[in-house]
Amino acid sequence: MRPVAERLLTQALALLHGTQEYVHLAKPSIERALVLARDAESPVLQARALVLRARLSSIQGRPNEAVGFTRQAEALVGPNPVLDRVRGDAYARVWRWKEAAEAYQRVAEASPLDWHAWQDLAQAYGSSSDDLRALSAADAGLHLTPQNESLLRSRALALEGLERPDAGSARDRWLAHRVPDSQPQLLSTCERAHQSCSRDRQPIPHYTLSPPRKAIHAGVDPR
User: Fold this and answer.
1) What is the tens place of the pLDDT at every residue in 19-77?
2) Could you give the CA distance from residue 77 to residue 48 in angstroms, rounded to a whole number?
3) Where are the domains positioned within the chain?
4) What is the pTM of this model?
């Protein structure tokens, strides 16, 4: 059986993926896991607990508190791009874009094949009016995922800000891959007509598993 601290952290991670009004329910599990990790003298488990505590503070709009927890984790396990991503997210949630860009830049440099890192970095640079760096980040991300709507948008806006002649074609390319404006209405219609649509849109959907019917009818043991 997995150690209690690990199970508590798994539970807390799941709770952090719920709706914002319920994320506070993760705090007792995180704090209990942190106590157990300290008793076991496990720096890795302590760092994992501190990262989740930082994510909770980030979701609740307390970036300075979140960064404080990441620094505690860094003192235990050293620098890590996970910590920089948490810092970047914490700053981005409260529109502190320059600080977010600094953190996301370290993430992208450590994980150059992670298109999410380039997407976050391009958005942060664009939101802080650094169009040249936003363009560079967007191009790096589009090399990995050429049809990514967010990266195409960042690239188009950066080219417009730089007054480049290809800004128009970049905007057309972005709009060609843009999520339709009618998507919320389509999703709402689907939710009303099909219970599975409503279920699948939940942060943590629940599924009921059952044995394959064909196997049962054919007399085959579904195990």
Assistant:
1) 888 999 999 999 999 999 999 999 999 999 999 999 999 999 999 999 999 999 999 99
2) 10
3) 1-87, 95-204
4) 0.81
C-alpha span between 59 and 84 (Å, rounded) = 15
What six digits make up the tokens of 99?
A: 């600080």
Neighbouring residues of 9: CB distance < 8 A, sequence distance ≥ 6 = 29, 30, 33, 45, 48, 49, 52
Q: What is the pLDDT of residues 138-160, one digit of tens each?
A: 999 999 999 999 999 999 999 99
d(CA 143, CA 160): 20
Query: Which class is domain 95-204?
Result: mainly alpha
26's CB contacts (< 8 A; 6+ apart) are: 11, 12, 13, 15, 16, 52, 56
Least Cα distance to 49 among 38, 58, 60 occurs for 38
Distance of CA 2 to the CA centre of its chain: 26
3-state class of 189 per DSSP?
A: helix
Name the residue with tokens 């810092």.
87
pLDDT digits (tens, 9 = 90+) for 164-190: 999 999 999 999 988 877 777 777 788
Handedness of CA 6, 111, 145, 70 (dihedral sign): positive
